Automatic annotation (TrEMBL):
<dbReference type="InterPro" id="IPR006073">
    <property type="entry name" value="GTP-bd"/>
</dbReference>
<dbReference type="InterPro" id="IPR031167">
    <property type="entry name" value="G_OBG"/>
</dbReference>
<dbReference type="InterPro" id="IPR012676">
    <property type="entry name" value="TGS-like"/>
</dbReference>
<dbReference type="InterPro" id="IPR013029">
    <property type="entry name" value="YchF_C"/>
</dbReference>
<dbReference type="Pfam" id="PF06071">
    <property type="entry name" value="YchF-GTPase_C"/>
</dbReference>
<dbReference type="GO" id="GO:0005525">
    <property type="term" value="F:GTP binding"/>
</dbReference>
<feature type="domain" description="OBG-type G">
    <location>
        <begin position="3"/>
        <end position="252"/>
    </location>
</feature>
<dbReference type="GO" id="GO:0016887">
    <property type="term" value="F:ATP hydrolysis activity"/>
</dbReference>
<dbReference type="InterPro" id="IPR012675">
    <property type="entry name" value="Beta-grasp_dom_sf"/>
</dbReference>
<dbReference type="GO" id="GO:0046872">
    <property type="term" value="F:metal ion binding"/>
</dbReference>
<feature type="domain" description="TGS">
    <location>
        <begin position="252"/>
        <end position="335"/>
    </location>
</feature>
<dbReference type="InterPro" id="IPR023192">
    <property type="entry name" value="TGS-like_dom_sf"/>
</dbReference>
<dbReference type="GO" id="GO:0005737">
    <property type="term" value="C:cytoplasm"/>
</dbReference>
<keyword id="KW-0479">Metal-binding</keyword>
<keyword id="KW-0067">ATP-binding</keyword>
<dbReference type="Pfam" id="PF01926">
    <property type="entry name" value="MMR_HSR1"/>
</dbReference>
<keyword id="KW-0460">Magnesium</keyword>
Amino acid sequence: MKLSIGIVGLPNVGKSTLFKIITKQEVNIANYPFATIDPNIGVVPVPDERLQKLTELSRSKKTVPAVVEFYDIAGLVKGAHKGEGLGNQFLTHIREVNAVLQVVRCFKESEIIHVEGGVNPLRDVETIKTELALKDLETVQKRLEKAEADARSGNKEFVDLKDALEEIKAWLEEGKMLTTIPKEDSLHWKILKELNLLTAKPQLYLLNGREEDVPSELITEIKETGAGYVVADLSSAETIPELIRKAYEVLNLISFFTTGEDESRAWTCLAGTKAPQAAGVIHSDFQEKFIRAEVVKYEKLVEAGGWNEAKQKGWLRLEGKDYEVQDGDVIVVRHG
């Protein structure tokens, strides 16, 4: 599956700087709002030491990591949902990403202009959350108008849909992030997925500054929503791997591997994915024609020194259609 993350935030908080570090691409960085007009898209390999070890073990000709797409969205401001600062255009760019990464300015340097006149991370987080929620309210309201018309027929399915949309609208009006809706509310989550709502996407925060710059209240607030966060001053080499680790965590993703003389490759799927669906990540035909998977844990494969050696030690398992692929599994798919 493709992993994509939209980078959002107020102007001049460090979004384009982060994007430049992530992709090592030159983007337009300027000390004024709206320097970035179109979303810059960068494809970044997922750092995973296990993959390189598998390449060495199999003497693979190629190494193919999993990748993350980062979308650098131009700075949002108060009123973005109505088009302030070209905000409507930018919010549309976030619709298709898997997760939203909000960059929050915590550093105090006064020579860098702040669009609100002063540094206040709690206020800035609230501004972005409000703009995302207001954009979602527009989307929900349009869908609710149609649902209300359909519900006049008395059809229970339409009535239930209308009621669920009204509840979602109420949550948004109360300023709640839709990620906090219980997963058991299956109808609500079906609607959130259908409408691709921004505040229903898993949230990540990059708190741009030093640990001492970050208000403890902000950390508490982020944790209460179940979001992931990284504190970094955008000069640490560990910032990007840590961001990607957090993205995998909040999106409930795992990595599994294939390896051989031709290539060693990392693949991404949701935790709990069963073997046929994981095989489909490799190739759609594999899911349809799945027979079984030969599986060995990465650590056991390395310990054994190779595939045949792991098989001789009895560490290779044959798994069927009900097997849930685990992080670190090395797999060979048998198919018709």
